[in-house]
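ugh finaly. both done.
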Amino acid sequence: MGVEVVVEGLTKSFGKQTIWRDVTLTLPPGEVSVMLGPSGTGKSVFLKSLVGLLKPEQGKIVINGVDLVRCSEHKLYEIRKLFGVLFQDGALFGSMNLFDNVAFPLREHTRKTEAEVRRIVLEKMEMVGLVGAEKKLPGEISGGMRKRAGLARALVLDPEIILCDEPDSGLDPVRTAYLSQLLIDLNAQIDATILIVTHNITVARTVPDNLGMLFRRELVMFGPREVLLTSDEPVVEQFLNGRRIGPIGMSEEKDQATMAAELAHREAGHADGPPDEDVRGVVPQLEPTPGLPPRGAVRRRKDRVMSILHTLPPEAQEGIIASLTPDEQRHYRVLAGAGDRTGPITADPITPSPWPRQGGVL
């Protein structure tokens, strides 16, 4: 299973410009997480910091007991072997065919024979649907194929952590849907810890187990998908609905006066689109392709969500409970010691919640 990534109090600046400060979160092992945020909020900088390509000024990044911010170059080199990275453009070598591009990390970092290299490369290319394209050059294939080739290359060293920097950039909605399904299928097969940076609302709502949001140089929220999809945090709600009204502006964040004027305008009946455009709620998550094993991450995440359910607002509780299947409702009743009674779980905020707090990250 993938490894846990613990980030504590991380701050990164370029000169006098602070990119983000005091970022604290935990990427749960074997789960898929997404980091959201408007353009220019430092999402790609965060990925590069996690893998040690950039060094934060403060804080910790702890993986397998090693702090990547303060460890030696030798330790950093060893920890980097746990990572596979999919860059925005695939970062393929234009003069190499796809086979040689995917094989490059194996030839560079291992002493495997060419027979072993060929077996591994073909296995990973099959996983991403590129069998038969081994001899093609990057310039001869579509953007979607280049993304998949970049993903195959990220997988050849069997990483426990996969970082994807805007994997949907430059792709049409259909290819984005295929790539989203591919990432879910990979997680089902190898149970790796995956972090995706994206602007895509559909990806954010349907793919990850956990969601995070960077804004105004801070991490606004990070937690299970159910918590953020039902959140009334203004910037999270605005982003996930793709609305103009909210803290996010065109070139920079809005001041309080602008936000107040927008709110008054909306309350006067001049809404930003019809009321039924609000899509806040727990939408179904992508499932692995039939024939693949179920994702262990789903049960781990739902167990964590139910352990903190009583701490959430009533509306969020109701949305989360409504998203459970009847079998899941029975399962959590038994865990809570309520027995396998019939009838729906209720989220009455007046009565104590039957869900015990068991710890874990929000």
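ok and the 2nd:
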Amino acid sequence: MTMPIALFQAAAPGSQPHVIPWLVFTLIKLIVVFTVYMVGVALLTLAERKISAWIQDRHGPNRVGKGWLQPAADGVKNFVKEETYPAAANIPLFVLAPALAFIPALVTWAVIPFAAPWDSPWGRIEMVLAPLPVGFLFILAISSLGVYGIVLAGWSSNNKYALLGGLRSSAQMISYEIAMGMSTIPVLLLAGNVTLSKIVDQQAFGTWNVLNLTIAFFIFLIAAFAETNRLPFDLPEAESELIAGYHSEYSAMKFSLFFIAEYANMVTASALMATLFFGGWDIPVILWDNIAPHTGLKTLATLAFFAAKVLFFVFLYMWIRWTLPRFRYDQLMSLGWKFLLPLALGYIVAIATTIVTLDALGFARGSVPFHAGLILLNIAAVVILFVLLDRGRVISPAYSRLSTREVEKLRERSAPRPVAPFLPESGD
């Protein structure tokens, strides 16, 4: 019994609970988180339809249980549909691919703290499934495995459209995974730790990283859209070019599992953005939720704030999908390699230089002058990037390389010429 107790004390310092309560609470957290996660992902399919209907001035699903039972109806339909397998497909990998696309998004949730700890009668209970000391590195390692499911789905289907979709997805994820990882280095420089709970505490007693690291959040947001294959980055499943992309040959529940994986990745990416840049479960302005005693009321309140932050980013995902058009593939690659990656590298140098300078001037970490210096740097970076360099185009590599005058010339050439009226001859 000595080793489990030692491991638990290392995972939750300052508390000495018994092993049995720890196991019981861990099982409860596993069941609750998995149930809420799966039910929430199912309801997000309904939310997507309702939000798209609201944006397009439609009603959306309103028949099955007034629309609320639509996810259940979709699930029953997918379970009773016939499973089809291509004749030349690699059946083991064909069946395994949907699970490989979904599991990494679910496993990543194990290290994300979703509420303040609770000081129970049996010891402190951390509101995270696995409080790893290297939780952030765990996220980077596991989240990058989701591309294997998509690549295997495209290759094992033995379909050229599915293969092209899988290849596009692998190139896209590799391109934006680098920018996403680079954008999080300034977060680690400020926190001085790779534990997600420490990153949340650093923001709770200081300023949210979205103010200190605005450009890093901008890069992470774009990379998160690309990593989840959502519009305007859904090139791997472009209907106009690749039919349905990597899941062209899938049917029934295996087909829907890819969509479940997409929404699961959306929730996980939203939770990461809330944790890294918006204080995680921290309630803004007040410190009531960050200081002892850690009661059950604080745990429930912080859980509600964390859920609100996650749902805001999920809504942003859906809003962007029904607002922006799809990028061309050359624009997609140009944005990742020519814009985001150099910007992330330059921003790391700027943040590191600023932190070293502020430390040398004697400003303590977390003090008002320290945060004021970082905020002023970000204001200057935003002005230089969006006002001076980009000049209102939002993302430079995604616009046309033609000048305004050249575009006007092309419009004049392509304009329809007036047709002379038909005049009948005199003898007719």
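summary for the 2nd one i guess: The chain has one domain: 86-400.
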